[in-house]
Fold these 3 entries.
Entry 1:
Amino acid sequence: MATKIDPAVEKATQELCNKYQGVRAQIAKAIVGHDEVIDNVLTALFVGGHVLIEGVPGLGKTYLVRTLAQAVDLQFSRIQFTPDLMPADIIGTTVISEDPASGKRTFEFQKGPLFAQIILADEINRATPKTQSALLEAMQEHSVTVGGYKHVLDEPFFVMATQNPIEQEGTYPLPEAQLDRFMFKVIVHYSSRDELKLIVDRTTTGYTPDIQKAMTGKEIIGTQRLVRRIVMAPHVQDYAIRLGMASHPGGPFSVEATNKYVRWGASPRAVQTLTLGAKLMAMLDGRFNTSFSDVQRLYLPAMRHRVLLNFEGEAEGVSTDDVLRAILEATPTASEAVA
């Protein structure tokens, strides 16, 4: 017997699909290619997560988030992370303010650039761990505390952090516990020949994209709530759980590649990410229940920053993505009883 769908949910889902395509169309006016990267960034935004994006300079990472901020009606802030950046530089600080008429002095909180809705944390691995932690605390709590007072950040609050994988001198790589707070880690690859031709044509001929706002902050918050109403069947949920547990060396669902190359596996946040992301994938496909393919589609970006290789894996030049692909291939969709 087919499950009866709430007409309000059905209507809201159709509106989401239209809005999503509208935002995507606006981004396409400026960004050439990188379809998977754009989809992962929008998925994180629409379900309430954050994204760490990695790629060499000049591939359009900063331009992507700038364009996204133009396509949605949200306040945008760019923070360039440097070794001398302090937490107060991004959060803000309390200053003494004097009334010119009465001469009375009061303490006033001056907000930092973190008080926006879309934050571009450019080259996050160049800042010290203390400043990184200040940003990551805001990502988790959606608030900051200064001088004993809690300041709530405006919703929706979305952080896209970038890092350069090549130049590591003078950098402070994010520890695994802080990487885990990002919903996805997305890798930006080089453009193809045809894409590069279009990029050159656009950037050397005076072309200026006319980016229109296609979605409001209120609509994005509504989407984040709507996603949680989509059904995930028990057998699909179990598949996501087993994929997460398959990254645990020596665990009941570990595969050969896991036991050989992995030191630490993914946390429960990985399964939460797969669940929420798969629900959005189903909605965008016009379905009201998730499938195995929805989970598989997001497995690499959801897991690659949550799995830590051991010495043998690093010595043999095995990448985290190689291990994850092996897990996907070896983990059956059908559940099997484990003693």
Entry 2:
Amino acid sequence: MGLPTGADSPMIRPMTDWAHHLSGRFIVFDGPDGSGKTTQFHRFVAWCEANGVAVQPVREPGGTSIGEQVRDILLDSKNIEMTVQCELLLYMASRSQLVQERIEPSLERGELVLADRFISSTLAYQGMAGGLGDDAIRVVADIAVAGRWPDCLVIFDVDEAVAASRRDTSPDRIESKGVSYHEQVRRGYLEQARSDPERTILIDASADEDSVFEVLLKSLETWIQSAASV
């Protein structure tokens, strides 16, 4: 089912009064390539705007002039010799610029910052699938983002068969890695959900777009009501 358009769509029109509690929060949408997270990202941005929430959407790697240049290097299929350590540092460089240039100023203005990927991607791709240790990644990440970790991580989970059927027919350098690599990526995300359940929402994204979006809204409502009561 396609993305509903227009303010009167049941998926976009204002639905509850919990949306205003999103202001000043930092939420990350993440998951394996082919999980549908970017589709849900755009739908949720539209929903926030319809509910009067000032939202700052950003993507990783990229989101800034410098970050987009780094993105081109990272995803270029010609760069097959790139090491996992190089990947890690390039992602962190783009992320550092994004935090300082866009994320921090937006949070200071009281906006909701919604990121398409963040440190969680590095832990899954360069960590679990790439073989780098979580502790080392977190040390570098803490320096890169100056301690700015997200308030909530939403992971969209699908198995590799579903993900592969959804991925682009012209894959970038990361997407073109083998089945075993992507299975390890998924394992990395599931491990993060298990290790930090209070700040992580795990969503089965194998259903149709509308069903996944409904689950997303209900899950975020539950999380924000809990966070707002603390």
Entry 3:
Amino acid sequence: MEYYRFTIKVAEAQREMALAFMSELPFDTFEETEEGLEAYLPEADYGPRLQAQLDAIIQQLGLSYQREVVPYQNWNAVWEASFEPIQVGQFCGLRATFHPEMPGVQHEIVIDPEMAFGTGHHATTYMMIQAMEQEQMQDAAVFDYGCGTGVLAILAAKMGAAEIDAVDIEDSAFERTQANALRNGAPQLKAYLGDLSVVPKRSYDIILANINRNVILDSLPALYERLEAGGILLVSGILAADQALVEQSAAAQGFKKSGSWRREDWCCLRFSK
């Protein structure tokens, strides 16, 4: 199967932001280069809609790129070369199967090297893990909204959550979440493919939403309804410049801000109901 390679010129200071935006598109792999990023996309997934979405991101961030067709290669090797482990203090370590064990962390999560998500969202994932460390997960009902590889849902399981639902609109995310849950011994994790409507209607003690500003803003009413009284909503994938907007929208919905984190150009927010 042939792939398209998008070579994107982007300054180092903008790379996390660019990765965050582009990870919402169905790229299989991201690889950092001296001049920016290379993003790989199966030829079958390319079309006018994706091109328009990518062009909008490029224009918004003031970037430039080139597109070329490349023959099949060992994409796991490409992914392995670009992915780096994440360690959040002594609380949690996130690594792939080809990395050595991470001694000294309370919770270690091992993800499937066949996943298709590259190196994006490190800052937002890091903050969500920081925020989760402060929460009481034992016997809780948890919902991971936009689960990606299932990392946050798996961490909730390791922290003692009794019931965990996770959902994502991408086939690959759904499949990887299932595989990673099995790999990490999280049988209480149930994954769903689709948007919020496919998840059984019930209430949760804690909702995790590491997605993006627009999805969070659009989903606040539904998330409020699905949260128990006194429950906690943790959100990230939000640029620091958009923090006030999200806080105002959450307050209008009835949420109360009860914590915040900042890393690079990103923020993570804690709300209670």
